[in-house]
Amino acid sequence: MSDTLAIAAEKAGSEPARFDFAAAEPRWQQAWERRGCFRVADVPDDGLPKYYVLEMFPYPSGKIHMGHVRNYTLGDVVARYKRARGFSVLHPMGWDAFGLPAENAARERGVHPARWTYDNIAAMRAELQRMGLSLDWSREFATCDPEYYGHQQKLFLDLWRAGLVERRESWVNWDPVDGTVLANEQVIEGRGWRSGAPVEKKLLSQWFLRITAYAPELLSALDGLERWPERVRVMQAKWIGRSEGAKLRFPLLRPVGSIEGVEVYTTRPDTLMGMSFLALAPEHPLAAAVAESDPQAAAFIAECRRLGTSEAVIETAEKRGFDTGLCVDNPFLPGQTSPVWIANFVLMEYGTGAIFGCPAHDQRDLDFARKYALPVPPVVLPPGADPATYAIGDTAYVGPGVMFNSGFLDGLDTEAAKRAAIAELERQGAGKGEVNWRLRDWGVSRQRYWGCPIPMIHCDACGIVAVPDSALPVRLPEDVTFDRPGNPLDNHPSWRHVACPECGRPARRETDTFDVFVDSAWYFARFCSPRAAVPMARDAVDHWLPVDQYIGGIEHAILHLLYSRFFTRAMRDTGHLAEREPFAGLFTQGMVTHESYRTADGKWLYPEEVERQPDGSAIHRDTGEPVSVGRVEAMSKSKRNTVDPGAIITRFGADTARWFILSDNPPDRDMEWTEAGVSGVFRFTQRLFRLAEAVEAAPTPAPGTGFGDAARTLRRATHHAIKAVTDALESFAFNVAVARVHEFANAMADAEKVAEAPDHPGLAWARTEAVETLARLISPMMPHLAEEIHARLHPEAESLVAELSWPEADPAWLAVESVTIAVQVMGRLRGTITMPPGAEAGDVVAAAAVEPNVARALQGKRVIKRVHVPDRIVNFVVAE
RNA sequence: GCGGGAGUGGCGGAACGGUAGACGCGGCGGACUCAAAAUCCGUUGCCCGCAAGGGCGUAGGGGUUCGAAACCCCUCUCCCGCACCA
């Protein structure tokens, strides 16, 4: 089937009755470009309302994939629709161009990262342009352009001056073979993903952006993001992770070196009198101090470190600990001490890296206490429990209750006890109430070449000195080698040597580059004034931001979106813009999936290597060997279940690809790409073309009142389609918009049938109206075919559908001439009647009652209630 | 475990509390053709019935309502996210 279709598609050029997409699509793309249809000014003076549509910009891998097609089609529908609705639409495109793949290509194939990246950009730009997207290409930039990253360096220095940048030590995943820091997702089973070497935890000085300074605002402002998916807001809220509790200090009975006590954060200060032990994270300073004189402690800590890096949390659900022999006092229980343990389940990164263990009311603490036979004193009595007999088994009681065994807290409920405990801690000076956040500051240092250089200088005399604004951008050197492990910037013979801007003596450049998430944390702002001499022109960003509709994958729900929200606030506080939130509306699309195929010996096959048999089985196209059809799953190179958008556009055209990707299902769900689906859509494009072909430009003016039945029916269908498609597009229900166009096409086909017969007043005019309307209604989805249809009706005119306004439904033609009213008896459908719209209730009920089938159902029954919903339903309620 | 989302024909999916299954795919039957493709027409939730018609039906069980796929309660299944966060 696909072969024959391909032939049909290829023949399309030679047969005039077909839509020759291969010729038409480039022609219209050039026409849009020539007329600058999609260009807008940085600060427009057209007085139109603004609308900023943005899709997440791509990493330039070199080829677009179906996920891109879906993403950019969705955005383009919105952009074209809003433009037609009279908005001045900003719809830009650029490249998220820094990152590791370019460096890997350099190491593996000897291509310079810049060369590799710009070649890929050229290839991908050409593919995107074939899709016919309504982009303002004059705004294009790549984040690896020195112009772009120079402005990023300026932003960073502004943050530095505003106190939003810190340099401090932190634990990182270190690959000793590659000599580089690894992100968590690059550590696989405790080993570097490239080198395979066991990853070490290493303490390194890193640059941090103080995102935590905005934690309260980032959390509270989530409530205002009404056009964001609920789940993204929830994920961000959990990531930010606000908790209320108390921080308190436990004095050690005997100091260890200079350490005299341990700070602990808890959300359950009410349970302090149920304390059984104190536990330290293995990385805790006190643990390290103990280890200095205790080889066994050192061995335990080393063991934890080895397991800890490997994300082995899952397999080591088992809790393990080491008793240091130390003891602490409890501020609420004078004279009673608790042992200090080192425990593998305590996280250094959260709170203070130490906890107090209350096993009766915390499951983790209970597991630990049972394992090491520590006491489990209960202090919270669940509702209805008997204090005389209440005991904890294998399940901790974490719910609310009434305090007992707790001295001054006895009798209080959990919430009151928390408040009373905090008040008492504060009175004693032993601790205080505190809000804690899970969010960590953002470590942005990467020991890599292909990233934006961090514009800082290390001077032995002056310390850390910022590169002066006048010396920006700090450019990456081009003459780098990748033949040695580690960061090429460190290995470069001269680049790092620089005179200190303050004292003039020899100093060293920072050789770390920024995390690529910094690049994408402000690009939406740069798009507003992409050629400005400053990071962003204030009047341009104040005009265009926030992005009205942002569209992309759910995988960026947390990091990219949170960093962008942070950066926007940081840019506000450094005077670059006024806006608070970057993205007023967010839409997260589903994945594109496909069947997967493999041969008997387990080799994955590409879809084009597989042929389906009439009986549903599959064989290898060339060898004829049987192929097993696997699950439908996300397209991935490893499963080879990918379809190349370029090949699809060549065979079927961009409009077909766009329409299919919109039509299959709602855009937030995963969609399945199928051959049958594409073929069906291809046929539909040809059908629309034929329907339009059959219609001549009708004489203007309209024939006034001279519309016969057929013309009236078609005009009603036309205006109904306008309303229905508009409603669907407004609600992001693109699959429904597609269905409404199908209905409209069916109505047009019906009109064509009767048009053969003579004497249909006004039908020719109505058919022209229908075709003109069709062109505009499909234009957001199938822009090329829309232009083609429009041009055939107006061969002399210069106008483009891309420049036309959206059609308006005429209410007069939305009105129906009769309505079908369902008639129920006791809520069960017994018949339907046809009435004029707005008929009197009495008339409708009377007509309903005599409908034969209804009358039979009412036979011998006493009607006790008649429900009438105008133009919709009549329901007779009868007594039994 | 916690959180979020989803369960509707063979399939993707429609459906302001008001005729469930729009629209498409697929299937079946037919027209056109030497034949095929393309195109066009009809049909297509399940069961009973020659028909008229009737029964069942939106994961399952209850409830609210004249009327529930939709609202409420309980249960089940699947997908996604987070997961020793003190």
Description:
The chain is of the alpha+beta class and 880 residues long. It is 36% helix and 21% strand. α4 packs across α5 and α21 runs antiparallel to α22. It binds one RNA strand of 86 nucleotides through α1, α8, β9, β13 and α11.
Supply the key terms:
6-stranded mixed β-sheet, RNA-binding, 880 residues, 4-stranded parallel β-sheet, alpha+beta
Taken as a percent bin, the fraction of beta residues is: 15-25%
Assembly form of the protein: single chain
Mean pLDDT: 88
* Overall geometric form: globular
* Contiguous runs where pLDDT drops below 50 for at least 5 residues: 1-16, 309-315
Tally the beta strands: 35
C-alpha-based Rg, rounded: 35 Å
Largest sheet: 6 strands, mixed
Short précis:
By secondary structure, this protein is α+β, with helices and mostly antiparallel strands.
